[in-house]
């Protein structure tokens, strides 16, 4: 990155990253110098009873998908919302492959090489250079199963898995090989971890649970295990974008220092204390991505954030159950984060 680009990316804008996190509990011997140190202390279990970390994620416009423009937009969002770490959106998705008409066609997939991912790796490098000294940097990671859905559509993928899962397995192997090229490049570029998404174990999505266990889960775990063994901060995201869950049994043993999921199951609402105990780790979430954060008044947003935080375990990150709408006013996100930063569990 040249000097001019660095100077454009580096200054703190209005609502910079240090605005809402200066008050620490007396249990700390010294104030953490920045968000990076604060989150590393949080991961070590040294929570501040008067401060709850928070972060929300959304997709940016077509002009901000990768490269330097994406890095600048991510930094702008990070600083304006005052969130506690940087999370990079994965926008270099696989294109639709019309030849995937039957299960045996999955063996014809061409593995993606590093040049395919390079535009997004540029974004990673720029953000690491500009922000890693101040904040932890996470990259979004879609599972091989999710990438296969991009290649064929989710209904086609599910049908092929029901018809001949062994044939589809070859395609998942190819996608996993490609994913590992990307994961290792991100680690080499300096990310601190990954926001690791899984799908496939939602209620009624696959013909039987054994398909997920035998053909989806093993490929999920390849990159997740490497990320968790290499990086200090990984978030397991149990994604309900496609369908809700009846339970989380299939993914309770997945890696990740933190879990992010929707507490609303079919026929049951979990508390975050239950989720933390179930997954045996801290959790993140609390706000419905289509609820008060989007539709409520400022007074309602403040009340909901306080309610969620007060009911949560001490080691908790306020966030949404998934990506919030792209058109959401960033000031709404900033308000929710400000409230969390002044509220302890």
Draw up the topology in text.
Blueprint: H1 3-9, H2 35-43, H3 67-81, E1 86-88, H4 114-131, E2 137-141, H5 144-152, H6 154-163, H7 165-189, E3 193-198, H8 209-230, E4 235-238, E5 258-261, E6 264-265, E7 268-269, H9 272-279, E8 283-287, H10 292-295, H11 298-311, E9 316-320, H12 330-341
Parallel strand pairs: 1-2, 2-3, 3-4, 4-5, 5-8, 8-9
Antiparallel strand pairs: 6-7
Helix pairs in contact: 3-4, 4-7, 5-6, 5-7, 6-7, 7-8, 11-12
How would you describe the overall organization of this protein?
The chain is built from twelve helices and nine strands. It has 345 residues and is of the alpha/beta class. Helix 4 links the parallel strand 1 and strand 2. The N terminus is likely disordered. It is globular and about 55 Å long. The chain has a seven-stranded parallel sheet with strand order 1-2-3-4-5-8-9. The protein has a single domain, classed as TIM Barrel.
Strand order of the largest sheet: 1-2-3-4-5-8-9
Can you tell me the overall shape?
Answer: globular
The secondary-structure class comes to: alpha/beta
- Show unreliable segments: 1-29
- Relative strand content: 5-15%
Biggest sheet layout: 7 strands, parallel
Average predicted confidence as pLDDT? 91
- The termini sit apart by 41 Å
- Under the CATH scheme, the architecture is Alpha-Beta Barrel
What is the element string, with H for helices and E for strands? HHHEHEHHHEHEEEEHEHHEH
From the alpha-carbon coordinates, what is the Rg to the nearest angstrom?
20 Å
């Amino acid at each position: 990155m040249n000097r001019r680009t660095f100077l454009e990316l580096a200054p703190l804008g209005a609502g910079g990253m240090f605005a809402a996190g200066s008050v620490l509990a007396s249990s700390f011997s010294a104030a953490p110098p920045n968000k990076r140190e604060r989150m590393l202390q949080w991961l070590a279990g040294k929570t501040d009873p008067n401060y709850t970390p928070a972060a929300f994620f959304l997709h940016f416009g077509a002009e901000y998908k990768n490269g330097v423009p994406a890095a600048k937009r991510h930094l702008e969002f990070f600083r304006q919302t005052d969130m506690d770490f940087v999370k990079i959106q994965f926008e270099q998705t696989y294109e639709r492959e019309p030849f995937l008409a039957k299960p045996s066609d999955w063996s014809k997939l061409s593995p993606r090489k590093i040049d395919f991912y390079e535009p997004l790796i540029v974004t990673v490098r720029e953000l690491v250079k500009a922000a890693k000294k101040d904040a932890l940097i996470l990259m979004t990671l879609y599972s091989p199963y999710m990438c296969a859905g991009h290649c064929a559509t989710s209904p086609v993928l599910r049908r092929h898995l029901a018809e001949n899962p062994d044939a589809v397995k070859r395609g998942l192997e190819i996608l996993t090989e490609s994913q590992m090229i990307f994961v290792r490049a991100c680690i080499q570029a300096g990310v601190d971890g990954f926001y690791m998404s899984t799908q496939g174990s939602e209620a009624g999505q696959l013909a039987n649970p054994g398909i997920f266990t035998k053909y989806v889960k093993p490929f999920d775990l390849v990159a997740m295990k490497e990320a968790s063994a290499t990086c200090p901060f990984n978030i397991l995201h149990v994604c309900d974008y496609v369908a809700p869950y009846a339970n989380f049994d299939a993914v309770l043993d997945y890696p990740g220092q933190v879990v992010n999921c929707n507490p609303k199951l079919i026929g049951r609402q979990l508390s975050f204390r239950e989720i933390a105990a179930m997954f045996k780790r801290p959790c993140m979430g609390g706000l419905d991505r289509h609820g008060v954060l989007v539709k409520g008044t400022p007074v309602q947003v403040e009340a909901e954030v306080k309610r969620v935080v007060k009911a949560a375990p001490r080691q908790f990150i306020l966030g949404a159950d998934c990506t919030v709408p792209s058109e959401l006013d960033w000031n709404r996100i900033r308000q929710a984060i400000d409230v969390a930063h002044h509220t302890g569990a």
